[in-house]
Amino acid sequence: MNKRLVGLALFAVATVSPAPALAQEAPDVGSLMGFIRFGGVLLSVPVVISAMVVMRILGDIADRLSKRFASRRPLIQKVESFARFAIYIAVAAVTVGLSIRLDPTALTVIGGALAFAVGFAMRDLVAAFIAGITIMFDRPFQVGDRVEYAGQYGDIIKIGLRSVQMNTLDHNIVTIPNNKILTDVTSCGNYGNLEMQVPMDFYIGADQDVRLASELIREACLTSPYVFFDMPVPVLVKQLVVQNYVAVQLKARPYVYDCKQEKPFETDVHMRVIEAFRKHGINPPAILHRTRETVEARPDSLAPEPV
To answer: Which domain holds residue 43?
Structure first.
């Protein structure tokens, strides 16, 4: 009899115990669905549509004002950008307030999602911040240096904690994240100095007077008003083939007294060299045609003597 009572008790416990578990899971799904206000979701649709219409009207007004007040166009565009950003934030806040019941549980879920999104979005910002501190101490370049980076060439005008700003020779402001600079190769022309070397290449034919051409190039560099006299002006010579032409390359390495005068200095020297070459009859590379008579006329010819 006792064994029968124990068996019936165990059977009752086994059949009744899953019910509370199912009853406990059901409220969790219901509580998640309880966060959403379906009526608020429907009300959010006209709010979003109204915001799109307002931004469209705002863009048309900004375009008309920009055409009418051309001198104030940058200011008008800034105001329009700030207004659009404010509308985005307001619409997002209103939509969340209408669509979600903001009880403590919902605020916890939303706060966690926002914290994760903000942390993921600020990953590159934190990396750029740390790289900016590294640049401050390592100093691969300084403000005012002429730098080449990723195909861009110009003067560094600002070194910030997030990015570096470069003013190119075409007067374009290029913003470079600090973490990109630490991972790529950067070339600095003057590295804190005012003077800077300006290499220049000149090409003449292989049959031209190389020594005279070298002296004319050196004279053109030294007579330029932009040259820095405290540094030498070497001229290097090398023979090579340029587009199927046998040529002689003469590379001058003068210094300009101010890196901002690099291009005027380069232009002035090239103009002087072109005029000097024309005056002394020094010609550019050309295809040379040799005949048997020309080879035999050379004193160092290896042609056999006639018997």
So the answer is: 38-121
